[in-house]
Task: structure prediction
Amino acid sequence: MSSDPNRAVRRAHAREGRLPAPERLHARRSCTAIAALLLATALTACGEDASTARTSTPAAAETTAAPSDPAGRPDLDAAEEVAGNLDVPWGLAFLPDGAALVAERDSGRILRVAPGGAPQQVYQVPGVSARGEGGLLGLAVAPDYAESRYVYAYLTADTDNRIVRFRLDGPPEVLVDGIAKAGNHNGGRIAFGPDGMLYVGTGDAGQSGRSQDPASPNGKILRLTPEGRPAPGNPYPGSPVYSLGHRNVQGLAWDSGGRLFAAEFGQDRFDEINLIEPGRNYGWPAVEGSGGAERGFTDPSLTWTTAEASPSGIAIAGDTLYVAALRGRRLWTVPLVNGRVGAPSAALRDRYGRLRTVTVAPDGALWLTTSNTDGRGDPARGDDRVLRFPAR
Result:
C-alpha cells in the first residue's frame, strides 16, 4: 500500500470521472476565456466549475404532498419534487413537525424543507471549509428536540473534521474535533440510534493505516453520548470507537430489531453493506469486500462493484433496505429478514442522476436527495433536488 496520500485522491477522482488537479486548473482557465455568450455551456463542460458558478436559489415544488401511510411501503413510481435548485445537499434530518432540515455541503447553509413551500434558510454553520468531498455533511436532530432544540452536524473545518451541536437561534458548540480531514474519505454521516446514542461514520482521510489504529477516530464508527463523550458500554472502555477497519462510511440505519447497518465505499473493486457489531474489525485496508473472515475480520453482508454503487446514505423502511448510489445513479432496494440481506434490485436507474441521501420520514414517506452539482455529476435543470415517495 503506497504511503502517498495523494494517490488515493487521484484514484478516487478517476473512479468518479473527475479531472486530476492540473487538468481542472487548465479547464477553469479555459472557461474564463470563453465569451460571455457561451459561458453557461462552458461552465457545464468544465466539471466542478459548473457547480461553483450556480446563482439559482432554492425552489419549492408546485404540488402538495400526497398522503403517506406510515405502515405502508414507499411507492417509487410516485415521486414528488419537494425542493429544487439546491447547492450540493448532503445531510437530511426530520423535525418533529415533519419538515426536514437539509444541509448544503459547500454553502454551509441549513434549509428547512417541507412539501408545498419554498425552502427557508434557518441556520448558517460557521467555520465550514468546503474542499473536495469536505464541507457541511451529516445532520441529526436530537431525540429530545422538543425540549432541548438541539441539532447536530458533522463538518469539515480548516484543520479537521468535527461534530457540533447548536440550537437554530444560537452559536454552535464543538463536541468532537480532531477527526483528520482530506480531499476525500471524510465520512460524515451521523444518526441517533435506538439507544439514544449518537453514531458517527468516519473515513480514513486518505491514509488507510488509520482504520486499523484504535487510537485514531478515522476509519471507524463512533458511538457517543449526546454531549459528545464516549458512550457507556462501548467495546473499548473510555474510547468512542464502536467498530473499526472502515474505509469511508457514509450510511447508517437500524432495522426493526435494532441492528445497525452501514454503507461503505470500496476502493477499486467492491462497495459494501456491513452489519455492524461492537468491537468488530471490518478489514480495511487488508481486505476490500469479502475474504477476510479467516484472518479475523468481519465480512460484509453485501457487496457491489464500485461502478454499480458508490453507496452513500441508507435507510430502512419495514423489511427493505434502501441504498442511495452515487456513481451507480440508482436506488438499490434490498430485502431484510432477521438481519440477513436478500438479493438487491435496482430502482430509479439513471432517472435522477447521482443519489446521495435517503431517509424515512415520520409519515413513512421516503425522501431522497440528488448530488449532481457536487462537481462529479451532470446537472439537469432544477438540480439538485429533494424528492419524496409516499408510502402506500
Observations:
- Helices lie at 5-15, 21-33, 39-45, 49-52, 145-148.
- The two ends are 49 Å apart (CA to CA).
- Residues 1-55 have pLDDT under 50 and may be disordered.
- The longest strand covers residues 330-337.
